[in-house]
Amino acid sequence: MLNCCHRPAKLLKRAGVLWENEKEEKIRAREATLSERVPPLQLSALSVQDLQALCREMHQKIDSVDEDRYNIDLKVTKNDKEIENLSHQICELKGKMKRPNLKRVKISADAMLGALLGAKVKESVDFKANLKTVKKEEEKKEEVTDWRKNVEAMSGMEGRKKLFDAGQ
Fold first, then answer.
1. What global pTM score does this model have?
2. Own/partner pairs for 110-118, CB < 8 Å, 24+ apart?
3. Contact 163, 154 (CB under 8 A)
């Protein structure tokens, strides 16, 4: 029973030790990478002109790195905006967006035109006068004839052919 109570404390202590070791390992790896990429400077044997040339070279490298960083930052912000825009479109497609309640506005046609066109149109516009008129085609009325006269003419195969030809 005593052993169970001390087990979490031992685990925490062990985790702390492992965490400290991991931190030190990361620091050593960082230093090794920096020593590979950036060789140590030997400034004692350089003249003033050589030092100035070295400074110019380092400034050019710093400028190019800053440009690269700025370009990457712009790309990241552009991608973030695009992701945000696409997620907004997805929400709209799913219908999760709540539409605000719109207020009903009573406005006359003249006032609406005045608001849309400004002070250009002050006279009243008669909409009904501007509508196009559509003439209805008069339906063709077939003459009503005595059906008994056509029965003999339409009987048989010839009559059916006439009906078929008339339908086309």
1. 0.35
2. none
3. yes
- Dihedral-angle region of residue 65 (phi above 0 means left; psi in -120 to 50 means alpha; beta otherwise): alpha
- Distance from C-alpha of 24 to C-alpha of 17, rounded to nearest angstrom: 11
Residue by residue, DSSP assigns the chain as -HHHHHHHHHHHHHHHHHHHHHHHHHHHHHHHHHHHHSPPP--TT--HHHHHHHHHHHHHHHHHHHHHHHHHHHHHHHHHHHHHHHHHHHHHHHT-PPPPPPPP----HHHHHHHHHTTS--S---HHHHSPP-PPPPPPPPPP--HHHHHHHHSHHHHHHHHHHHH-
Mean pLDDT of 10-22: 93
Give the per-residue SS3 of 108-140.
Answer: CHHHHHHHHHCCCCCCCCCHHHHCCCCCCCCCC
Q: Residue 155 and residue 163: Cα distance in Å, rounded?
A: 10
pLDDT at residue 80 is higher than 70: yes
Query: Residue 158: what pLDDT?
Result: 64
pLDDT in tens, 43-67: 778 888 988 998 999 999 999 999 9
